[in-house]
Structure formats: C-alpha cells, structure tokens
Amino acid sequence: xxxxxxxxxxxxxxxxxxxxxxxxxxxxxxxxxxxxxxxxxxxxxxxxxxxxxxxxxxxxxxxxxxxxxxxxxxxxxxxxxxxxxxxxxxxxxxxxxxxxxxxxxxxxxxxxxxxxxxxxxxxxxxxxxxxxxxxxxxxxxxxxxxxxxxxxxxxxxxxxxxxxxxxxxxxxxxxxxxxxxxxxxxxxxxxxxxxxxxxxxxxxxxxxxxxxxxxxxxxxxxxxxxxxxxxxxxxxxxxxxxxxxxxxxxxxxxxxxxxxxxxxxxxxxxxxxxxxxxxxxxxxxxxxxxxxxxxxxxxxxxxxxxxxxxxxxxxxxxxxxxxxxxxxxxxxxxxxxxxxxxxxxxxxxxxxxxxxxxxxxxxxxxxxxxxxxxxxxxxxxxxxxxxxxxxxxxxxxxxxxxxxxxxxxxxxxxxxxxxxxxxxxxxxxx
Length: 430
Fold this sequence. Notes:
By secondary structure, this protein is an alpha/beta fold. The protein has helices at residues 3-13, 17-20, 30-38, 57-70, 99-116, 120-134, 171-174, 178-185, 205-214, 222-225, 262-279, 286-294, 296-300, 323-335, 379-387, 399-409, 422-429; strands at 47-52, 75-78, 90-92, 95-96, 139-143, 160-163, 195-197, 219-221, 226-233, 238-244, 249-255, 307-310, 314-317, 341-345, 365-368, 393-395, 415-419. It has 2 domains: 3-300, 3-Layer(aba) Sandwich (UDP-N-acetylmuramoyl-L-alanine:D-glutamate ligase); 307-429, Mur ligase, C-terminal domain (Protein-Tyrosine Phosphatase, Chain A), CATH 3.90.190. The protein is built from 17 helices and 17 strands. It has an 8-stranded mixed beta sheet with strand order 4-3-2-5-1-6-7-8, with helices on both faces. It has a 6-stranded mixed beta sheet with strand order 12-13-17-14-15-16.
C-alpha cells in the first residue's frame, strides 16, 4: 500500500473518533496492552509525561515538548486530533513521522490490528510508541485522547502526570458531572508518580486528592506554585512574568502561542517543568524554559490557538469547542477592538451546543456553516438552534463559502472569528 491507501485503510477499517464520533470510542486497555506486548512494549523504552484535561492539554503538551527539545533531549510528542495531516499526531523533535514509517507499520501489523479489533486511536497510539522507540526518543509527551482511566495511552507509567483542568465535555462517555469527569481524568495518576493539577476547583479537588492519596502520589496545584504577575500581548508573541511562590523568583517568558487563556496553560506548564527539574532524572535549565516557550508553536507546528489568519479585517480562528474553552475565547473577542464582529460557526452533531451558543454575543453577525465531515451538524439545524439563543445570521453550507461571504461583508475595522469545531478551523488553516 502507498501512504494514501494506508490512510484509507486506517480510516475505513479502524473506527476513528475524529470521523465517527462516540460510536468509535472503545474504552478499556486490554486490546492496546495485547498489541503493545506483541510489539515488545516500546512504551517502556523512554521516559513519558502524561497529560489529560478538558482543555489546554494540546497547548501544554506542545510547550513541554518544545522546552524538552531546548533542554537537549530527543523528544517525542503524541497529540490528537490532527487538523490537516494525520502525521501531526506523532512528532520527534518537531518533525512529523515520515509517511513511509506509517506505511511500513500498517503493512507489518494490519492483520494483527484487525484481529484484535483495535480502534483507530489504539492503533495510532501503538504506532507512536513504536516510532518513538525506533527513533531513540529519550522523553515523550503523551496526550490522552479522551478521558484518562480507560484511554489507550494509559498503559504508560510516566515520570509525571498532568491534568490541565476539568470542564463539561464528552458527558455521554465520561459522566454528567464535574466530579465524575474528574474521576476519569484522575485515572492517569500512577503509584508514586507526582501529578500536577492545572486549575483548582472546589467542585473536584477532592477527587484528585483521593486518587493521589490512594496511589501515594504527590499532588501539586499549579496555581499554588506559580503566579502570573504581569502579562502583555504583542503582535506574534505574548509576554509573561511569572513568580515562583516558594522563593519569589520571577521568570520573564515569551510565548508564540496567542490567546489570553494561555495564562492558565503557562502556569501549568511552568509548574510541570519545575517539578520535572526538581524531582525527576531530567535537567531543564532556565535557558531551555525561555527558549522552548518562545518557540513552542513554531518548533512543533501547532496551529489553531487564537491564530491570526489576516490583519484587515482581523481574522482569527480558534479550536475551542466546548463551553469551558469557548468562554475564554468569547471573553477575548470582547476585549479585541473591532467595529462589527462576524462569527463563522460550525459544530459536530454530538456536541452539547446548548451550553456553548449562549456564550456568544447577540450583537455579532453570524454565518452558520458545517465542516466537510460526516459528523457535521447541518448548518440549517445549527441556525435554528442558534435562534433560540438570540443569534441570527446566514446559512452557508461550506466553510470556504462562509469565509468568502464574511470577507465580502466585513470592512477593514471589523473582525472575523472562525470556530466551533476543530474541523471548521482545519479547513481555514489548510
């Protein structure tokens, strides 16, 4: 098989959550454990850092990987979903896995993967572990796909676990309350392995504290360790001054990821880096921290986080897709100078949009659309639902058509925002 045929096999033969939604979710570790055993348990050949959370885990993962690269470690990074290229999920020192490596792995193992009934995500996880081992990776940053406890990535024993935050998302699979969702994320906590919690909340802190106590694991709340004492936004970077609370030492850091919400991710990432340096075999200098953060997006090709696509009119896209994430995006929309705001919105059909739509400003002009994905919520259905929350606008069936229409309507002082779904963002950044 060539690369395109290999991808076709993967997406058609092995159910992908990205393509199919909840029906593709296969909880449990039995299949991935059996497959990795046949591969020789490649995940045991390098140090790992395991990251879960409702939002921010992609940004934190990329920041950590960039800093580890600057610290001189050969670094693997496994994230999901991808925006444009399947290989975005698996990076070594910022470079995507070669197409031929994907082809060779599937050619060699497709019979076993089919026999075991692996999900698309389980196969991809095993591919990442195998490639990292082949590539002599020293440390890998591993992002969970969904949840934590039963996620395919949870066969690793990391040197550090991180949970960025807890919000209401994937409730049908993870639970309908914050404590229930937190319990699933807390499933990544391993015996005697420290865990960093990015955002405290009295509604779920006890869940993590109980899990950490049972596993005899140190629990660290990032907000207790570091405080952001100054923040400013530049054109292509934002600047942070963060203070380490135990000794009041101040770190001046630049980040080439935009969005005010990155403040939370920076505090989480810096806490994780500090703990890695203090309590694990890794050595991470302040220079590596500064240079890694300054190049976090560029060195790992991360896209879709408050990404500027054009200047006049200012055109921004963001992959925030649940109420917890959209809240921060909408706050920044309100803080960004503009005359009229045009919002291009599209969602998938399994998303709880009733919790998301009320967050958007009623005075904005909307262009309701749908991504070219079989999970897409029809644009007309979205428009009808949006009306219930006082959001009116046009229905345009394609993302490209919606963007063209927004540019036709907007003047230079206006602002265009594109979001709602990773798939919508993927179509505008491609």
